[in-house]
Design a protein that fits this description.
Elements (H helix, E strand, L loop, with lengths): L2 H13 L3 H16 L4 H21 L10 H16 L6 H23 L4 H21 L1 H4 L24 H22 L2 H11 L1 H6 L4 H27 L9 H14 L5 H20 L4 H15 L1 H8 L1 H18 L6
Helix pairs in contact: 2-8, 3-8, 3-11, 3-12, 3-13, 4-5, 4-6, 4-11, 5-11, 8-11, 9-11, 12-13, 13-14
Organism: Bradyrhizobium rifense
Pfam families: BPD_transp_2
GO molecular function, one term: branched-chain amino acid transmembrane transporter activity
Length: 342
């Protein structure tokens, strides 16, 4: 087997669906029926998961570090709010796409600044863009509502048929559908030759350029796509909460995103999804136990993850379940063993 065919075979194996992936999405879907009183927090987790996946596209696959990813989230949130408030696009799905495209335009325009620097420069540039947009949103308060945000946002029924309800059920399944569709698209992209070229760029940009990969064009493309995903997440925020304020541009939002990826891991799409679930559960539990010091406990969890290691913690958590499975499998093997002819 040649080297090229070996790489192609490995890529095909990675791109195949596994039973664990199907189980993951079935569990997420089942949560919508098993916890009908928790639609609001579950919808918040889905939005955060999509937002984290957008950052993972550039951080985990292209090596672009960003502390201002909330800029695209905020543009998407305000775009969806303004479109609904002024009746420009009343249908939520169309408004969602329009908001994502608005964030994509911003991502494309700023990508030329981001790709020119290295890690520290990129951190400062991305953070500066988010802070600049927050200042502009506060300056033009006649459009954005300033510190009060957009008032009187009323969302039309989804596809003209499914209205948003006060319990958040429609918002949950709407967000889940959007997340799953965009996940399928992202999964297809990262397992394509384009995605493999991104991994090569992350590992060694000079070597990638030497073998003919257009490094800058690849980075601009994935950065623009990540901005689209973040804009969609911001639009979902506005559509499911009917709120759009300056908080969507806040540094805390970008910082929380980095924490989610530290918990869940980068370089595979499920890291952002799993990290969002764990982060929100930890936040909910710690804020209930100690409302004033929940950030301390989350910080302590992050320190433990860094010191011990994510893989080792996972082995510890799964030790007892794996032990039980081995014992059950061993008993079945004993029972099923054929009797001797003697």
């Amino acid at each position: 087997m040649t080297a090229s065919s070996d790489v192609g075979y490995h890529a095909q194996r990675q791109a195949r669906w596994h039973y664990g992936e199907a189980a993951f999405w079935l569990v997420v879907l089942a949560c919508g029926f098993l916890f009908p009183t928790r639609y609001l927090i579950m919808t918040d987790i889905l939005r955060l998961a999509l937002f984290a996946m957008s950052l993972d596209l550039i951080l985990g696959y292209a090596g672009i570090v960003s502390l201002g990813h909330a800029a695209f989230f905020g543009v998407g949130a305000y775009a969806a709010g303004l479109l609904a408030l002024h009746g420009i696009i009343n249908e939520p799905v169309l408004a969602l796409i329009a908001a994502g495209l608005a964030a994509m335009v911003l991502g494309f325009a700023t990508s030329f600044l981001v790709i020119r620097g290295v890690d520290l420069t990129r951190l400062m540039v991305t953070l500066g863009i988010a802070l600049l947009l927050e200042a502009l949103a506060e300056r033009f308060s006649n459009i954005t509502g300033g510190t009060d945000g957009l008032q009187g946002i009323e969302m039309q029924p989804i596809l003209g048929e499914i209205p948003f309800d006060m319990f958040g059920k429609a918002g949950f399944f709407y967000s889940l559908t959007v997340l799953f569709v965009l996940f399928l698209l992202a999964r297809r992209i990262v397992h394509s030759p384009f995605g493999l070229s991104l991994r090569a760029i992350k590992n060694n940009p000079l070597r990638a350029a030497a073998i003919g990969i257009p490094v800058n064009r690849r980075l601009i493309a994935i950065y623009t796509l990540a901005a689209f995903y973040a804009g969609i997440a911001g639009a979902l925020f506005t559509q499911t909460t009917a709120i759009a304020s300056l908080d969507v541009f806040a540094f805390d939002r970008s910082a929380d995103l980095m924490l989610v990826l530290v918990i869940g891991g980068t370089g595979y799409l499920y890291g952002g999804l799993i990290g969002a679930v764990i982060f929100r559960i930890l936040q909910e539990v710690f804020s209930t136990i100690t409302p004033q010091y929940w950030q301390f406990w989350i910080g302590l969890v992050l320190v433990v993850i860094v010191l011990v290691g994510r893989q080792r913690l996972l082995r510890w958590v799964l030790y007892v379940p794996n032990l039980v499975i081995k014992q059950v499998a061993g008993r079945k093997a004993v029972v099923a063993a054929p009797e001797s002819d003697a």
